[in-house]
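Schema walk-through. Below, the input block comes first and the output block second. Nothing else is stored per chain. Lengths vary across the set, and this one has 156 residues.
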Amino acid sequence: MTVQFDFSKLEAMDVLDLACFIEREAEENYVQLATWAEKNSPDAARFFQRMARLEGQHDSQIGERRKALFGDQPSRYLDCAPWEVEVPDYEKVGTTFTLQEAYALALGAEERAEAYFNQAVDYISDPQTAEILKGLAEEEREHQRLLKQEMATLEK
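--- output ---
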C-alpha cells in the first residue's frame, strides 16, 4: 500500500527528501526485479538493471539540488516507510515474465512517479523547488515515452 502524502503540510525541503527516498526505493526495487529475472529472462534483467541506474541517478541529482537549496539541514523524516510511489506492481509479477511485461511494469511505476511529482508541485510555494519537481515529472514522462517506444519495437 502506497503511503498517502498531505503535501499541504510539507515544506519544500521535505518534498525533496521524500523524492530522494522514493527514487532510492525505486532503484532498490528495480535491482530486485533484475535479480528475479536473471535466470528466466536475461533481456528483462538487463532492462531492470538499466532502470535501476536511472533511478539512482535521479536520487543523486535530487540530493545535489536539495543540498544547493538547503545546505546540510537534516531531514525531518526517516527513510523507513514503504513509499511505493515508483515501485512496480508486484501483484502483477509472476515467477517469470517477458520483456514486454517488464516494460509494462516499469511504465506503471513511471506513471505513478509522474503523478506524485505533479501533485506535489501544486502545494509548493518555493519557485526553485517547484521547478525541480516539474523537471522530475518531465523526466518521468520521458521515461514513459522511451518505454512505449521500446514496447512498440517488440510488437513489430
